[in-house]
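Problem statement: downstream parser choked on a complex file, so we are re-checking the raw output for the magnesium ion run. The parser issue turned out to be on our end (a line-ending mismatch), but while we're here, posting the original submission so the record is complete.
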Amino acid sequence: MSTSSHSGGLLERMRGGELLKAAGAHNGLTAVLAARSGFDAVWAGGLEISASHAIPDADILGVGGTVSSLDSIISACNLPVIVDCDAGYGSAMNALFMAKRYFGLGAAALCLEDKRFPKINSFALAEQTLEDVATFCGKLRAVCSVRTSADQFVIARTEALIAGSNVSDALRRAEQYEKAGADAILVHDKTQGGERILDFASRWAGSVPLVVVPTTFYDISAADLHDAGFALVIYANQGMRAQVRAVQETYERILADGRSSRLENEIATVQELFDIQGLPAFQVASADFVL
Ligand code: SPV
Ligand code: MG
């Protein structure tokens, strides 16, 4: 199998013991900001992408509603993009067609979670129902079957702790997911201390790397998560939460002041937007090509 230029050897680096960090993005602009900040990868998260359409993260968008955001993210930056595939949008066959589409767009990795379709965001105050292990392993095998290069990979995410189960169950599930072909395991939790995540990592006897999303246990540093055994730390939504706060405050201040002058030193310049858009290169090319 060939090596995809989009993946940047991410899986190999995870296997090699490096600490890697991914940032959430929902469009080309936020993917460029993740790359400029020095992250190793982009997380195309369902929460951010749905929020960017102002709709709930509850399997509403589907494959068709997600592809244009993914295309924008993947095209805008050279970082490997890990796509949050939720529960695969239905059966193993839905997951198979989704995986072909997303890998075809140039995704480096697909992350499939073991909640029952339709899922709802892990932090929602709602009942969280797990898929049975055999059914989920079928979905995983389907998604793994359409990897087309050596470093396109599949992350199996267990929501056992989110759904009220315990670390032993999360470990049992993860072992089955590795046997079904998963290249990495993401174990998710929503408690603030992160103790169960650390317990999971200390008891993990599998051979594939571990991934973590420290949205609620934010006091634990990436370095400490790495020491505990995690290879990839995903900061899934902090960027978007920062944007929401900053944009809301900016608009309110413009209306309160009747002008934007007090903000001008705090917000990005129009020139910075031009740089993100690649306008200078565009103008050089225009001079060459447009007669
Ligand atoms: C997402 O970003 O959509 C995720 C991660 O699945 S979280 O929202 O933290 O569950
Ligand atoms: Mg998600």
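For whoever reads this later: Residues 24, 45-48, 57, 84, 121-122, 213, 215, 236-237 surround sulfopyruvate (ligand 1) (CB under 6 Å).
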